[in-house]
Specification:
This protein is α+β, with helices and mostly antiparallel strands. It folds into 2 domains: 7-203, no CATH class; 314-399. Helices cover 54% and strands 9% of the residues. The strands form 2 sheets. Strands 3-4-5-6 form a 4-stranded antiparallel sheet. Strand 5 and strand 6 form a beta hairpin. Helix 12 packs antiparallel against helix 17. The termini are far apart.
């Protein structure tokens, strides 16, 4: 079978691959049919835990997982009845593959137009959100195979469990790398099979994404060849469905790995810098906004060096260093810090530079002055100068 790169379908596919001990491309429909008894049994074993049962209320609303517990007292009092209810849904899908249309997920001609596909099977999938060429968006052209795999994604879910035992949202990971997906699935399935899911990652979701290279033992040679890892945070409950995604590309993955390998990841999280990284905002600016905390913190200069290397191009760093030497030759640190903070417009920043240029014996050429006062970039240069000054203040403070 081929990957679809849909987060629910592919997670289910790698769950099947783990159980069958087969590469995904070698899995057939007949293989899938042999898994329905095993996975329906496993699903009820997991969901009979009252806390973990919240996974279905939060993420798989109206599926037979959820129905088995919503109507447990009325229809599904025993383990076998709950299991059979899920088992029937699985088999109803796999036994009704047709050739009515091409599937918009896998591309195979195996859609059955008589099966109504909604978010009861694949979270966040409703007709109005997907392109369908010939049915006026009344149904979604997704095949029963993809639907079955999407239901199996539940075994790769990391529940975000609160102290009260509730699960406000569910998390899945997806990457372009098959090796990464295998590693993630292997660890998650081990947690499921050893009934250790309650002890799984229960920290805030963005922190768990920053921890991913460490938590899933992803070695350097794998990380060098990953294009992205996406954390999918989803809700699919009685009030509706929604999906939020945080994506780390290869540059961010390698940067996070450097932080981890140099024992700087905890400092990084302590300053909540992962928000800036994931939102493509300046981590340096974030530290400036926590300047007192930074000045009081111990030796985190190695982390700051890594952030500078990630965030500041060499050409810009050379210009900032040259400009910093210019303004430092004409001022003391305290006076400079006050002046820089007052530069809240491009005109004030330009006046600040010109005044210090006249006082100093440093040479800046016209092109460099123009670059520093360019209306697109002046604010960036301003906070980078402020950052260099703050680092200098901390250094001098430590030398005393």
């Amino acid at each position: 079978m081929k990957r679809t790169y849909n987060e629910f379908i592919d997670n289910g596919l790698f769950v099947v691959s783990y159980y069958l001990k087969k590469d995904i491309q070698d899995i057939t429909i007949n293989d899938l049919k042999k898994t329905t008894d095993y996975f329906s049994n496993l699903a009820i074993k997991v969901l009979d835990n009252e806390t973990l049962r919240n996974i279905v209320y939060t993420g798989y609303f109206s599926s037979q997982y959820e129905m088995s517990y919503r109507f447990m007292e009325k229809y599904y009092k025993t383990f076998e009845k709950r299991k059979n209810n899920v088992y029937k849904q699985y088999n109803n899908l796999l036994n009704n593959v047709s050739d009515d249309k091409y599937c918009i997920c896998c591309g195979e001609k195996q859609v059955n137009i008589n099966i109504e596909i909604g978010r009861n099977i694949i979270p966040d999938i409703v007709a109005g959100k997907f392109y369908n060429s010939a049915n006026n968006l009344q149904m979604v052209d997704i095949c029963p195979i993809c639907c079955y795999l999407a239901l199996l994604s539940i075994f790769n879910v990391i529940p975000i469990i609160t102290k009260k035992g509730t699960i406000p949202s569910c998390v899945l990971y997806i990457s372009d790398s098959n090796v990464v997906m295998k590693n993630i699935t292997s660890k998650n399935m081990d947690l499921v099979l050893t009934q250790s899911l309650m002890n799984s990652i229960q920290i805030p979701k963005r922190q768990s994404l920053i921890n991913i290279t460490k938590d899933y033992n992803l070695p350097d040679f794998i990380l060098n060849n990953i294009s992205y890892i996406t954390q999918v945070n989803f809700i699919n409950n009685k009030n509706g469905s929604s999906i939020e995604k945080d994506i780390i590309n290869n540059n961010k993955i390698l940067f996070i790995n450097k932080l981890s390998n140099t024992n700087n990841l905890e400092f990084f999280k302590k300053f909540y810098l992962y928000h800036a990284l994931l939102d493509d905002k300046s981590m340096i600016k974030s530290i400036i906004n926590q300047v007192n905390k930074y000045l009081e913190e111990g030796d985190i200069e190695n982390m700051c060096d890594l952030i500078e290397k990630y965030e500041i191009p060499n050409k810009v760093k050379v210009l900032i260093n040259k400009t910093f030497n210019m303004i430092m030759s004409a001022n003391d640190e305290d006076a400079l810090r006050k002046e820089i903070k007052l530069c809240d417009t491009i005109a004030k920043f330009e006046q600040f530079l010109l005044k210090n240029y006249e006082k100093s014996n440093q040479d800046l050429n016209e092109g460099e002055i123009y670059e520093l006062t360019n209306y697109k970039y002046w604010n960036k240069y301003k906070y980078l100068l402020e950052w260099k000054l703050i680092r200098e203040i901390k250094k001098n403070k430590g030398d005393k």
